[in-house]
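pinging the channel bc i need a second pair of eyes. not urgent but kinda urgent?? the chain im working w is below, pasted from the shared doc
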Amino acid sequence: MTDTTGQHTAPTVRVMVVDDHPMWRDAVARDLSESGFEVVATAGDGEQAVRRARAASPDVLVLDLNLPGKPGVQVCKEVVAANPAVRVLVLSASGEHADVLEAVKSGATGYLLKSASTEDLQDAVRRTAAGDPVFTPGLAGLVLGEYRRLASEPAGAAPADGEPGTPRLTDRETEVLRLVAKGLSYKQIAERLVISHRTVQNHVQNTLGKLQLHNRVELVRYAMERGLDDE
């Protein structure tokens, strides 16, 4: 994408806002639109959200969990199943641990509380569009702690690297994976390894393909199962 001077510009992030409170929904949509995002659709209930998300194909779905007709976690599951390219950022009044974990397990990339500032929301939408998991401070530790717990259970144990059937990653892919598990953003990883942001994205996509994983959250879990975040 280029501007009138021929310079390359970042593509506009397409956003859909789902909330059952009209004034809140309209305010969020207006704030995002005024800050440069393209709000392609809004919805006030679960059924409407799934239908409109499929028609509008947003880059980021800003989703409340408490919806009439169909709960937000179900909306998340159905939207992501229909189009895995859609990133879901939950924007909820609830900071309950069970709600956060259920949202992530349903396919959400991030979870932000409604007490967040407009600037925090804008930053979260940008990072979510880039594939970075974004959480209100304190909630990221909760999610990663749950992955550690699951990884410690015998049923969740994964084969060690080198065993038959284990995909082989390059040294660079393993290095990027380790930094992803530590919670660094793509930009931070690029700066740490002195490579481009695009190269980091390519390594992550290659790793996802090799490991048959669907998103960065699953990639973090994979890394933690192998203790890469502690190295």
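so The first strand starts at residue 14 and ends at 18. and The beta strands are 14-18, 38-43, 60-63, 87-92, 110-113. — does that match what u expected or am i reading it wrong
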